[in-house]
Amino acid sequence: MSDEPQGSVGEGGLVDRLDVIEEQPLAARADAYANLHEQLRRTLEGDDDHGRS
Questions:
Q1: Secondary structure of residue 38 in the 3-state scheme
Q2: Are 15 and 22 a contacting pair, CB within 8 Å?
């Protein structure tokens, strides 16, 4: 049994994704990091923003 939630990429997947981001040009890298940050934030916060006003 794993502590990792279902559908989670896991540490290896995150490292692979970071490697891909690092190979991109600077402007694309900035956008990719922003998208990754938002995805991680949603995951960590349980994506419960829809219930807030």
A1: helix
A2: no
The tokens for 47 are: 């994506």
Backbone φ/ψ region at 52: left (φ over 0), alpha (ψ -120 to 50), beta = beta
Per-residue pLDDT tens over the stretch 10-34: 677 899 999 999 999 999 999 999 9
- Tell me if 40 is assigned to some domain: yes
* 3 DSSP 8-state letter: S
> How many domains does the structure of the chain reveal?
1
Q: Which domain holds residue 29?
A: 11-44
Q: What is the pTM of this model?
A: 0.62
